[in-house]
From TrEMBL:
The protein, known as: ATP-binding protein
Amino acid composition bias (Gly residues), ranges on this chain: 607-627
Superkingdom of origin: Bacteria
Region annotation (Disordered) ranges: 342-379, 606-637
Taxonomic classification: Bacteria, Bacillati, Actinomycetota, Actinomycetes, Kitasatosporales
Organism: Streptomyces ruber
Biased composition (Basic and acidic residues): 346-360
């Protein structure tokens, strides 16, 4: 059954698929008996994306005005309604897709579970179309399509006023249908006879061979002669069965290398993607294995493709032999299966601009924070060429033929690592630094890579976070665990490299890894807005202040005063004797984490910047009973001292900003995944802050320009 309508004009973008369009139009119009959830599926290359794109043209009020609706079958045209929400899933995490929906419907939701509650509370049907489910995620091996179905689409489809159309692979379509009540989901499998479109495939092939269609079709005997063209198109369509991709590959191979092609020999036309590869190679007198090895790096690539200058090196690494000559001479061989795209090498671009709030990784979303949706410019640069396969199904075929995908990814990962100039990640090609983690993840080598703070700082945090989250937590080292803890801030704020470095520097100090914090300062050559002096993991800090404690000799010692619960070890009660429930304070050296001895002779007064970092522990609070410290002796900065200070502090729930008083420019902006409970700034520029987890001190560098708002 083809579902074609001979008396009507076909959809100009699809050229057929009438039966499927009727079902989708019924779903869109909520026709009696139409399911609330439809999942479009089929084998890779079956035309799912093309169908859903053509259907969305009919759903977009402005675009549908450009279509010949009066000439089309009315049963294939959905009613004229407001455009549905279309959070395209390709390259996005499940959380990103969900927050795109929240933004589209302007929901007042702070957590992921709130999104579904808010959607259910809307007094109207909610129509959502999610294409490319099986292409979700910034990292191939991280399992994001499965996560998207289980954590987003399943609860979304359970909301009674949601009408959902998704496009996915067969296993994911079956999973979604299985967990929902019977009758809720209709699966449209484009390979099934009910939905297949053999007539459309023939028309597709004939149009692709026609020089008069406006495409770059050479004038050949079987393209300019209408009868020969129609006969060849019919043969290509028959051989391709239900796959538009096989039709496209067959036409590409013929037109790119027509010499020696016999249109009368139907056996030389492919029936599968693998057949297209092998037949094309043999017709050009090449070994099919050579073609597959040439394309292997593209089949193993992450994101939008690999830089052209790395192609030969990566192919040689996978093949275990020099492939540079094969690549240089093989464009006719590889050309039908490859796309070339230009991209700015380092764009003046806005990172991660596909969402406007919420957490871009996994988890519960949480408070979006003050910087959610902000976008930061990166370094500028020149154009470069990226190579990618024509369709993911070509990659699936090549990957399936590799003897050991994990070993191949290991070879690619080592080659990418060798391509980092001087092992300086700031100089690495963007593909190398942003996607080496995806290759090492599939190779089983990612934990060994996660020891370099330069990679943490310079890599795009969205794919790096996704890769790290896919690794069993028990296999991660301490630096990787710190990165994973900090990654939600990096992705949520879409922070540029300098701010990523600053946030990681303070996180390393908090986690007792001062050597990694020092490495960020000393090795990366970045002008950070602060240096974290110490961190104290004392919970329950409700107020902080900077001050000074007079000493018998010499200048007063700068101190940090933290108001804590009375039961905090080492805290000095402020209330009356015996008042166990009253407030208490910890007194700590402001500049460095040394314990304060009697008379505060080692408070670190006057210690210059750059003397190192440190951490405290709950058992080493920097003060204790018997020190002889009387909090009443601590002197706070006067109002005149604060007014004369060159820096000024402003505070929000999840962010702090330090301003230069004279220029009124922000010199430091600190963001946190936990609300700040208290903050103070000393006249000489030491920022004292507290959250529910503890307190820390940061020396602000006024010369640095803030890279966050």
């Amino acid at each position: 059954m083809t579902g074609s309508s001979e008396d009507y004009a076909p959809h100009p973008h699809i050229g057929g698929r009438a039966a499927a369009l009727r079902a989708l139009a019924a779903w869109r119009g909520a026709a009696p008996g139409a399911p609330r959830v439809v999942v479009l599926t089929g084998s890779p290359g079956s035309g799912r994306s093309r169908l859903i794109t053509g259907f969305l043209m009919l759903c977009e009020p402005e675009y549908r005005k450009q279509l010949p609706l009066d000439e089309m079958d009315p049963s294939t045209v959905p009613p004229d309604l407001p455009a549905p929400a279309v959070p395209a899933a390709e390259g996005l995490t499940a959380a990103q897709v969900l927050w795109l929906l929240a933004d589209h419907f302007q929901l007042d939701a702070a957590r992921t579970e709130d999104v579904y509650v808010e959607l259910a509370a809307l007094d109207r049907p909610v129509t959502v179309v999610v294409p490319d489910v099986d292409r979700a995620g910034p990292v191939r091996a991280a399992g994001e399509p499965e996560r998207l179905v289980r954590e987003v689409l399943t609860p979304l489809a359970a909301v009674e006023n949601v009408r959902l159309l998704a496009e996915s692979s067969r296993p994911l379509a079956a999973e979604l249908a299985y967990v929902l009540p019977p009758g809720t989901v209709q699966i449209i499998d484009l390979d099934e006879p009910e939905w297949a479109d053999s007539e459309g495939l023939v028309l597709h092939a004939q149009a692709a061979l026609n020089p008069g269609t406006g495409t770059e079709v050479p004038e050949l005997p079987f393209t300019v002669d209408p009868a020969a063209r129609l006969a060849l198109g019919a043969a290509i369509g028959r051989r391709a069965a239900t796959s538009p991709l096989v039709v496209e590959l067959a036409v590409n191979c013929i037109l790119m290398a027509p010499e020696g092609f016999d249109p009368a020999d139907e056996s030389r036309l492919p029936t599968t993607v693998g057949g297209a590869l092998d037949l094309h190679a043999r017709r050009l007198g090449a070994d099919p294995e050579t073609l597959r090895l040439m394309l292997a790096p593209l089949a193993l690539a992450e994101a939008g493709g690999i830089p052209a200058q790395l192609w030969a090196r990566l192919a040689s690494a996978v093949a275990g032999r020099d492939m540079s000559r094969a690549i240089a001479d093989g464009m006719l061989l590889a050309g039908p299966f490859v796309q070339f795209e230009g991209e700015e090498k380092e764009q003046e671009k806005e990172q991660g601009g596909t969402h406007t709030r919420g957490d871009t990784g996994r988890g519960t979303g949480g408070d979006a924070g003050p910087d959610a949706g902000r976008q930061y410019p990166e370094r500028g640069g020149s154009m470069r060429t990226l190579l990618r396969l024509l369709h993911p199904a070509v990659g699936d075929e090549i990957r399936a033929g590799l003897p050991n995908v994990r070993a191949a990814q290991a070879q690619i990962a080592m080659t990418l690592l060798e391509a980092v100039p001087d092992q300086d990640w700031s100089k690495a090609d963007p593909y190398v630094r942003d996607h080496i983690a995806g290759h090492t993840l599939e190779a089983g080598l990612l934990p060994q890579l996660l020891t370099d703070p330069g990679l943490f700082v310079h890599a795009d945090p969205v794919p790096l976070r996704a890769a790290v989250e896919a690794v069993p937590a028990e296999t991660l080292g301490a630096p990787a665990r710190t990165y994973l803890r900090t990654a939600p801030l990096l992705t949520r704020t879409q922070a540029p490299a300098v701010l990523r470095a600053a946030l990681l520097e303070t996180a390393f100090v908090e986690d007792g890894l001062p050597e990694y914090a020092d490495a960020i300062h000393q090795r990366l050559g970045l002008d950070l807005p602060w240096q974290t002096l110490w961190s104290l993991p004392v919970p329950g800090v409700t107020a902080v202040t900077v001050g000074s404690l007079p000493r018998p000799e010499g200048p007063a010692a700068p101190v940090a005063v933290l108001v804590v619960p009375a039961a905090t070890p080492g805290a000095v009660p402020l209330g009356d004797p015996g008042d166990e429930g009253g407030p208490a304070v910890l007194v700590h050296g402001l500049v460095r984490p040394d314990a304060l001895g009697a008379g505060v002779t080692d408070a670190g007064a006057g210690i210059p910047a750059g003397t190192g970092t440190g951490t405290g522990t709950s058992g080493d609070t920097g003060t204790g009973e018997g020190t002889g410290i009387d909090p009443r002796q601590i002197l706070r900065p006067s109002e005149d001292e604060r007014a004369a200070a060159p820096l000024v502090l402003s505070r929000g729930g999840h962010h702090l900003r330090v301003w230069d008083r004279a220029s009124e420019e922000v010199v430091a902006a600190l963001v946190s995944d936990a609300p700040f409970t208290a903050a103070d700034l000393s006249p000489d520029g030491i920022l004292l802050v507290a959250t529910e987890r503890g307190a820390k001190a940061l020396r602000i560098h006024p010369a640095a320009r803030a890279t966050a708002p």
